[in-house]
Design a protein that fits this description.
FAD/NAD(P)-binding domain; flat; 3 domains; 347 residues; 5-stranded antiparallel beta sheet
Length: 347
C-alpha cells in the first residue's frame, strides 16, 4: 500500500500520512529521494513543459513526440545529454539550451568540446551560456522562447532537465536539520535521535573536503544506504564521503569521469595521454602522490570501479604514475590487488 508521509513528529517518534493516519517508529530512515527542478518560466504554465525524471515522465514525453516533433531541452547535464542523444538517434530535431556548457560538472573543457562536436555532427543545436527568460505558447503546438541574449527560439516540445532537489518539504517543523538536503554525520545520522538519512535526499560529507554536499548518484546512494542500515542495526559503520563518478555512452563513444575530473585545483597535477586523432584521451589527476580524479574518452577497457577504488583507498601511487597512465587497466588492477592483499594480511 502506497502512502505519502506529510509530517515527521520526532518528539512522538511517529510519521503522519496524507490520509490522516499515523505510524510509530523505533528508528527512521529518510530516503525520500529528489524531485526535478522545475523552473518558473514567465508566460508558460508548468503544465506546458515537461521534466524527465520518472517512468511517467517518459510516457508523457513519448506521447508528445507523436509525429516526430522537434524538442528543446533546457539543461546541459547528464540527463539532458542522454535524453538528447536518444532523441537524435530517433531522427528528431533537438536543441540544447544551457546556462553554462555541456557536461560542465563531469568533463573538463577539452573533453566537453569533443562531446559537443559529436552532438553537432549529429544535428544537435547547442545554445550555450543562455537562460530562458520567457516562454509563450504559439497556437496549439509550438512554444516561443525568449533567451537571455535577446534571441528567440521555437520548439514543439520543451523539456526541463536542470537537475534535482532533495524531497525535504515534509520535514518542516520536525527538528531535523536541513540545508540543500538532510544534513547527516559520518554515520548518516541526523541531529535527531533515531533518525538517519541516505540517498539523493542526504547532504553528507564530501570525500575531498569536510563540506557537506548532495551528490545524487546511484553509487553514493548505495554506499550511504549500507552505512545507515548498519548503524540503525547498531553495527558501527562510517561513510567515507561522496565522490562524483559518471559514465556516458553516446553515438559509439564512451566518456567516464570520477573524483576531481573537472580540474581547476591549484595543488593538483594532471597527466594526459591522447591519441593522434584526439578520439581517445586519458587524464589522471594527482595530489600529494595520490590519485584524486580521472577522465577517460573511448577507453572501454578501463574499469571505472577500479579507478574509483584507487581514489577511495588514497593509495600513494606517485612511483607508478607514468605506468598507470601508459597501462591504466593492468596497473590499476595490480595496485588494487596489492592493496587487498596487504589488507588481508593485517586481519
Amino acid at each position: 500500500m502506497r502512502k505519502e508521509i506529510v509530517k515527521v513528529l520526532a518528539s512522538e517518534k511517529k510519521v503522519m500520512f496524507q490520509d490522516g493516519g499515523a505510524e510509530p517508529y523505533d528508528t527512521l530512515l529518510i530516503a525520500s529521494g529528489a524531485k526535478p527542478v522545475t523552473p518558473t518560466l514567465e508566460g508558460l504554465p508548468r503544465s506546458d513543459y515537461l521534466v524527465f525524471h520518472t517512468m511517467e515522465d517518459y510516457h508523457r514525453l513519448a506521447k508528445s513526440l507523436d509525429g516526430g516533433r522537434d524538442v528543446a531541452i533546457y539543461g546541459g547535464g547528464l540527463v539532458a545529454t542522454e535524453l538528447a542523444a536518444s532523441l537524435l538517434e530517433k531522427g528528431l530535431s533537438v536543441k540544447l539550451i544551457m546556462r553554462s556548457r555541456l557536461l560542465r560538472a563531469y568533463l573538463d573543457e577539452e573533453l566537453g568540446e569533443f562531446v559537443e562536436k559529436v552532438f553537432r555532427s549529429r544535428g544537435a543545436q547547442l545554445l550555450e551560456r543562455v537562460e530562458i527568460r520567457e516562454a509563450h505558447k504559439v497556437g496549439d503546438r509550438d512554444v516561443e522562447l525568449l533567451l537571455s541574449d535577446g534571441s528567440r527560439e521555437h520548439t514543439a516540445v520543451l523539456v526541463a532537465c536542470l537537475g534535482v532537489r532533495p524531497n525535504i518539504d515534509f520535514l518542516r517543523d520536525s527538528g531535523v536539520r536541513t540545508s540543500t538536503g538532510v544534513l547527516v554525520d559520518g554515520t548518516m545520522k541526523t541531529n535527531v535521535e533515531s533518525i538517519w538519512a541516505a540517498g539523493d535526499v542526504a547532504e553528507a560529507v564530501g570525500f575531498f573536503s569536510s563540506q557537506p554536499e548532495v551528490i545524487p548518484t546511484l553509487h553514493n546512494a548505495l554506499a550511504q544506504g549500507k552505512v545507515a542500515g548498519a548503524n540503525m542495526a547498531e553495527e558501527l559503520a562510517s561513510y567515507e564521503g561522496s565522490v562524483r563518478n559518471n559514465v556516458f555512452s553516446f553515438f559509439g563513444n564512451l566518456a567516464f569521469s570520477c573524483g576531481l575530473a573537472t580540474l581547476g585545483e591549484d595543488d593538483a597535477e594532471v597527466v594526459t595521454q591522447r591519441s593522434d586523432d584526439g578520439q581517445r584521451v586519458k587524464k589522471l589527476v594527482f595530489r600529494d602522490g595520490k590519485l584524486v580524479g580521472g577522465a577517460f574518452l573511448n577507453h572501454p577497457e578501463i574499469d571505472p570501479g577500479v579507478i574509483l577504488y584507487l581514489i577511495r583507498k588514497k593509495l600513494d601511487v606517485a612511483s607508478k604514475r607514468e605506468m598507470l597512465l601508459a597501462k591504466t587497466r593492468e596497473v590499476s588492477r595490480q595496485l588494487m590487488l596489492d592493496a587487498e592483499r596487504r589488507g588481508t594480511s593485517l586481519r
